[in-house]
Recover the amino acids of this structure.
């Protein structure tokens, strides 16, 4: 009886996730195969004719191969800012959890404020212009790090608290310097929460649309999400090209996750067992 | 490992050499940036403009950058102007939206340019602020009215109506024949405003000083019967059941397709849509005609016109002379020829010496009599008054779907407009 219930539950879950995740993806693929008049109908139908290759060529070559530039830029921004986020947030989390001072309350308030107060666009641009960072990739990377840092710090701080202090002390007695304690003892122990951070933040940063739109003007600075606007406008949208573009920019993260699936799941479950 | 290092060093030197070479090449020429909206009628046209201009001026190099249209586009233009990060040349709306980007503070006046002599005064008036002209037209004028399916009209023996009663009689016959009489597409909310905005010629015919009084806060939509009529007409077509069944979910593309293929008879729209028919429904451009929104009397039948967007130069321009040269090219008859060769014409040009090609789509030729001698046309309200409420499209969706009555909608719009008038600091509000 119990077994049958769990089978029914499993089937229902699979059907549910099929409807939520797979059907939209099939729709994207079908749309990418269509020509413009058929795609303008936006229905769930079998494509008439095979237009995927034409669509792909058109999407990639549009606006002087903008897609290639966009992929390079997005990859750089995502990889560098996630690396910085992980290292910086883990350091802050470690120090905050280990060292109790009178400043802790204020620092925690500032971190929460960074999470809650929405950043204003014009003053930020003004500040970046003053620092000569506006419209540059490294400026954009710093923005992504700054906007996402509070969330990562909170994740790390909670996790560091579960690592026994005895471990640091043992390392120090064995002669480890402060940086050794962090990089060789603590950071490897933080692997589960680091995986969570990498997954959440890289998806968020790769898919970020509004920040690059305002902080990173210029053709040579395009990111993948901005290429969507090549085919979608206020009055007229080429749905076949738009969906081909969506397909193109959805596939790389998907491949990355398929490839690293084992590490990600292992990392997350390792955290779960430890409690 | 050493081999690797060596090849990497070689590659590095090579890349450096390429960088240096390109730097040297650029040093000899001027590079301008150009920010345009991503409309399908804008991007190819500007690519052709730039190609033609660069061929004539080899020392100037222009880089095109695109931005979204609509509200997001407004934000980008305002943000980049406010932060001094605007491109050297950019396109933006004329009329009330142009007034909202603070032209005197942000833009370079172009009043004394030689080409201004060739631009029609009607266009200059919509890119003028405090006596200075700031923009040049790069597209043709548009009309706001009703696109109709010609084969369907022939089949049912109808003629384009001159009065609203004739229009409603036509609708009744189309409905009786089992077709959709009026297409509405509220998924793209902006399309819902046409019955109200395109009725403005009729408003001005009844109340000639409406625009001035409206700006001064003396005349209101709700209390002026002629102005209220636009909202009432929107409600009438819904209440009579003339709309397509999916009017709430259909979008602009669907509307174009329906009127082009004869699934529906009438689609209230601006004539720039003519350029999109060929893309959405190939081969049907010749099946779509156009008439102005009919009013109360056949004698006072006239067209409400829209002015096209303009190109502007911000005060932060890097090379004023080169930028002005490009703008002068855009406002020249040569540029019109480039445009004619690139996209379907959508209306008459506003620059002297510009000619439409001999073969134009019927919807455009239907529009030309209104501009010819003895024809009647007048600009839409947004070109006569700096006030246009931001929520009009939401209100017209409500009225057009029968959620709100016409009188109620008009009153709500008057309230919406008050906020904008106060922001602009107009007297009388």
């Amino acid at each position: 009886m119990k077994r049958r219930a769990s089978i029914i539950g499993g089937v229902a879950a699979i059907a549910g996730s099929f409807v939520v995740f797979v059907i939209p993806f099939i729709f994207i693929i079908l749309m990418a195969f269509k020509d413009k008049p058929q795609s303008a109908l936006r229905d769930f139908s079998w494509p008439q004719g095979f237009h995927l290759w034409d669509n792909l060529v058109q999407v990639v070559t549009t606006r002087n191969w903008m897609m290639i530039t966009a992929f390079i830029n997005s990859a750089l921004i995502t990889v560098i800012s996630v690396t910085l986020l992980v290292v910086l947030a883990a350091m802050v989390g470690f120090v905050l959890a280990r060292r109790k001072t009178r400043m802790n309350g204020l620092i925690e308030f500032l971190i929460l404020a960074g999470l809650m107060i929405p950043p204003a666009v014009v003053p930020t641009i003004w500040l970046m212009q003053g620092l000569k960072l506006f419209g540059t990739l490294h400026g954009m990377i710093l923005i992504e790090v700054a906007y996402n840092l509070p969330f990562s710090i909170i994740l790390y701080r909670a996790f560091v608290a579960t690592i026994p202090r005895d471990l640091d002390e043992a390392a120090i007695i064995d002669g480890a310097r402060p940086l050794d304690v962090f990089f060789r003892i603590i950071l490897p122990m933080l692997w589960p929460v680091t995986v969570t951070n990498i997954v959440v933040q890289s998806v968020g940063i790769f898919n970020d649309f509004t920040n690059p739109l305002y902080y990173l003007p210029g053709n040579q600075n395009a990111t993948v999400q901005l290429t969507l606007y090549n085919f979608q406008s206020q009055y007229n949208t080429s749905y076949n090209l738009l969906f081909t573009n969506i397909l193109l920019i959805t596939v790389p993260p998907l491949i990355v996750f398929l490839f690293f699936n084992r590490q990600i799941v292992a990392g997350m479950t390792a955290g779960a067992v430890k409690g | 490992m050493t081999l690797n290092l060596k090849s990497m060093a070689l590659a590095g030197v090579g890349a450096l050499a390429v960088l240096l070479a390109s730097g040297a090449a650029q040093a000899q020429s001027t590079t301008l940036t150009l920010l345009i909206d991503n409309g399908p009628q804008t991007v190819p046209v500007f690519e052709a403009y730039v190609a033609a201009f660069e061929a004539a001026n080899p020392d100037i190099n222009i880089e095109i950058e695109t931005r979204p249209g609509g509200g997001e586009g407004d934000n980008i233009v305002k943000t980049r102007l406010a932060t001094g990060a605007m491109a050297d040349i950019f396109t933006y709306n004329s009329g009330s939206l142009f007034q909202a980007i603070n032209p005197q503070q942000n833009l370079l006046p172009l009043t004394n340019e030689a080409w201004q002599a060739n631009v029609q005064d009607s266009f200059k008036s919509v890119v003028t602020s405090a006596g200075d002209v700031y923009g040049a037209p790069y597209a043709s004028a548009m009309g706001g009215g009703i696109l109709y399916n010609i084969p369907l009209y022939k089949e049912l023996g109808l003629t384009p109506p001159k009065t609203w009663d004739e229009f409603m009689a036509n609708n009744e016959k189309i409905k009786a024949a089992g077709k959709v009489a009026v297409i509405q597409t509220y998924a793209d909310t902006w399309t819902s405003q046409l019955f109200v905005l395109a009725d403005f010629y009729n408003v001005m015919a009844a109340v000639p000083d409406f625009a001035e009084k409206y700006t001064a806060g003396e005349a209101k939509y709700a209390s002026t019967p002629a102005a209220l009529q636009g909202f009432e007409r929107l409600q009438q077509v819904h209440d009579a059941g003339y709309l397509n069944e999916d009017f709430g979910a259909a979008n602009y593309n669907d509307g174009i397709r329906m009127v082009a293929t004869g699934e529906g008879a009438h689609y209230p729209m601006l004539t720039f849509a003519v350029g999109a028919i060929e893309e959405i429904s190939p081969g049907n451009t010749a099946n779509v005609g156009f008439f102005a929104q009919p009013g109360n009397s056949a004698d006072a039948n006239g067209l409400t016109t829209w002015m096209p967007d303009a190109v502007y130069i911000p005060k932060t321009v890097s090379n004023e002379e080169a930028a002005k040269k490009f703008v002068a090219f855009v406002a020249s008859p040569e540029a019109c020829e480039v445009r004619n060769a690139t996209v379907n014409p959508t209306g008459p040009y506003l620059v002297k010496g510009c000619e439409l090609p001999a073969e134009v789509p019927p919807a455009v030729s239907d529009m030309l009599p209104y501009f010819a001698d003895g024809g009647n046309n007048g600009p839409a309200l947004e070109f006569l008054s700096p006030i246009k409420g931001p929520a009009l499209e939401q209100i017209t969706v409500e009225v057009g779907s029968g959620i709100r009555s016409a009188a109620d909608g008009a009153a709500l719009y008057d309230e919406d407009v008050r906020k904008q008038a106060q922001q602009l600091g107009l007297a009388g509000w």
About this structure: Residues 2-27 of chain B form the longest helix (26 residues).
